[in-house]
Amino acid sequence: MSVRETVAEAAAAADALRALGTSGRAALLSGIAQGLDDARASLISAAVDETHLPVARLDGEVTRTANQARLFAEILEDGDYLGRIQDGEVLRRVLVPLGVVAVFGASNFPFAFGVPGGDTVSALAAGCPVVVKAHPGHPGTSGLAFEVLRQAVVAAGLPAGAIGMVSGFDDGARLVTDPGVAAVGFTGSTAGGRALYDLAVSRPAPIPFFGELGSVNPVVISPEAARRRPEELARTLTESIVASTGQLCTKPNLLLVPDGASELVALLRERFAASDPAELLNEGIAERFDSALSAWQHRAGARSLVESERTPDGVRSAALVQLDAEDDVAGFEEAFGPATALLTYGDLEQVAGRIARLPGQLTVSVFAEEVELSALGPLLAAAERVAGRVVFDQVPTGVAVTRSMTHGGPYPATTAASSTSVGGAAIGRWLRPVTYQNVPLSLLPPELLPPELRAPLPALTAGTH
Question: Catalytic: 128?
């Protein structure tokens, strides 16, 4: 089926999806969660073959993805996401679905940011049909996950086309430019995301493009933290940087450490050198990692503290690069893999200035001691200006799927700084406000009717909580 036909089928299902109501869509999402749990073994088996990720990591990701769907089911049930506002008996405001959403899955999270991931389930929750562009790095896994979604959609009484899937590079561009698509969700590289963003906003009728692109995720180690707990910090930071072979969008790519933190630097070198090599997701990611790491190493005054070992089959070991102390980190970009760069600073005021000059980030993290808290105001203010999440005394890897989470930030972290791709607020990307003025009750959408006038909606199926 062509992209045009797939999008047309999705658009044709929009009225039925909205007519399910909040409880009906909550039941759909609970069905998706149960389907993922039931298909866990086959999903993980396919993903191991295609991504080289370990079973334990993938098993946890299936759980996270199922729970993500359940979270949106809960959000639908409480109804707050609709943003209902009423002024007297004349003006009533509510959020309504945008229409068909195109979702581009990520390579590093085949489930949580893949076909059944947060973009997909939040769009379905909002009442938007979805067409997913399967990632070429795990086509078999994507196909199995798609079948789980389609079975849940049909079981909910919806047209099968409420969820569609396409594949291939050219079909991705066709999907973004198809006039039937109302919005796009994307997780991937800065270059790929920017190219699709440009297509979305250059259409005759531009559409919103919610892209998560690239982030350095700087981590600041305060002078007292480096002095008091170098072993703990070296262990915690190394684990965060090499987890999933460094292929996490929140992986720290830049550690800002105080002058004289020689013990911490020596311990980091030891732990990086001792970490186990592992295979990256695919050949393309390995090539881009090598290129980015080389760019770090060729910055003026930079030197390698730990070299990355490489094999032709994509295996890479951890790399540690020391940047020149005067490097202003202009043009410094992430290396998507097991590597980080060290940059020394003189005082916390200086490091606040460096953070403030960075482009948009998903996260900025600070490790500090209680005796230093009074000096951290400028640093945290700078962090707030550039990042979607400010982390204190914890690593940024590990993004909780909760109502309060922000997984976003100014460009190039994302293309829409006011949004998040993880957490309860992610549903807001696929909604727009409409105000009904002086409209008779009999003509209002169900979401705006008083509770006693709303038609009964389907109940959640048994065993979904």
Answer: no
Task: Count other Cβ atoms within 10 Å, centred on residue 179.
Answer: 12
Collapsing DSSP to helix, strand or coil, 112 comes out as coil
Q: Which domains does the chain have, with CATH numbers?
A: 3-213+414-453 (3.40.605.10), 219-392 (3.40.309.10)
Q: In the structure, what pLDDT confidence band is assigned to residue 458 with cuts at 50, 70 and 90? A: very low
Whole-number Å distance between alpha carbons of 276 and 243 = 11
Exposure of 232 in the CB half-sphere (CA atoms within 13 A): 11
- pLDDT-derived band at 342, boundaries 50, 70, 90: very high
In tens, the pLDDT along 195-208 reads 999 999 999 999 99
Instruction: Report pLDDT for 450.
Output: 81
Distance CA 417, CA 384 (A): 12
> Active-site residue among 249, 279, 283, 307?
249
Amino acid residing at 357 = R
- Three-state secondary structure call for residue 452: helix
- For CA atoms 442, 445, 448, 449, give the dihedral sign: positive
Q: Which of 9, 50, 61, 212 is catalytic?
A: 212
Residue type, 230: P
Omega before residue 396 within 30° of 0, cis:
no
Q: Phi and psi of 131, rounded to 5°?
A: -120, 120
Q: Which residues, including other chains, have CB under 8 Å from residue 5's CB and lie 6 or more apart?
A: none
* Amino acid 463: pLDDT: 34
Whole-angstrom distance, CA of residue 404 vs CA of residue 238:
27
The Cα–Cα gap between 72 and 12 comes to: 23
| Residue 306 DSSP symbol | E
Cβ neighbourhood burial of 191 (10 Å; 0-12, 13-18, 19+): exposed
- Burial of 455: CB neighbours in 10 Å, binned 0-12, 13-18, 19+: exposed
List the structure tokens of 175. Answer: 């999907």
